[in-house]
Amino acid sequence: MRLHRPYISATAAVIVSSLGIAAYHHMPEGGSTPAPGTASILLDSAEPAAGQSTAVPVKPWTTVSPRPQILSRLPGLGPRTLSHIPADACQVVLVTGAARNSASSKVVLYERVGGGWRPGAVWPGHNGYKGWTDEHYAGDLRSPIGVFGLTDAGGRLADPGTKLPYHHSGAFSISGPGLEGEPLAGSFDYVIAINYNRKPGTSPMDATKPMGDNRGGGIWIHVDHGGPTHACVSLSKTHMKQLMRALDPADHPVVVMGDAASLAR
Predict the structure, then answer these.
(1) Is residue 53 part of a domain?
(2) Total structural domains in the chain?
(3) DSSP code string of 145-180
C-alpha cells in the first residue's frame, strides 16, 4: 500500500470481510427438543462530470488497503486434510483452533480465484469447551475435526440475505447460562448447519442423525455468546451476517475445522 500525495483516487477498492467463532449446541446432543479488519470494500464512484476532479482530499497519513493477496494453497493444511476438500469447493471456511484442548479459534473465509485462494479477514471465535476430537460423541464437549459441507441455514431473525436455503422460525431460541455462566439469548439469531451427522438439504432444526444419536449432532456455526460451546463454532453477530451473505451454494462451500496441529496432518 502506498501513498504519494495527500490525494487518492475516488475509485477505491475495499473488501469487507470477517470471521469469528463461538458455538453451543442448539439442542442437547442426542436429538431432544431445542434447549440453546482488515477490510477492503469494493467502492466505485460514478463517472465525474466534465472538468470535475476525480480526486478526493485525504489526510497525508491515510493509507489504502491493497486487494488481498492470492495464495497458491490454503495455509496450515497438510496433505490428509487437503485430500478431504472436494474438488468443486470454491469457498472454504477455515476454523483453526488455538490448541487441541482450547476453546478459542480463528476463522477465515477463503474463496477460490483462478488457480489460488483469496483470504478474507481473520475473525476470532469459540469452539467446544474441551477443544477438538477426531471422533466426536454426544456430550464430550469437543468439536469434531474434519471437512464438512455447509448447505443450510436458518435463525430466529429474518433472512439476512444469504443464498443458502434459510429456515426462519421462532424455534431457533435458547435461554439460560452457557458453560461459563454467560447468557445464551440470541445465540441462534443466525445459524449455519455444519454437515456433521446430519442430512444435508434440510432445516438446521432437523434432528436426523445418520450415524446415530450417540455420535452427537446439531452442530452449527452460530452467533457467539462470549464463551465456549458444546461442539459448535460461533462468530459475532456482525461476522455471522457477513459470512451468511458471502456463502453461495453454487460455490459448494465447506468448513474445514480443527486444532492447528491436526489440520497440518
Answers:
(1) no
(2) 1
(3) PEEEE---EEESSPP-S-SS-EEE-TTS---SB-TT
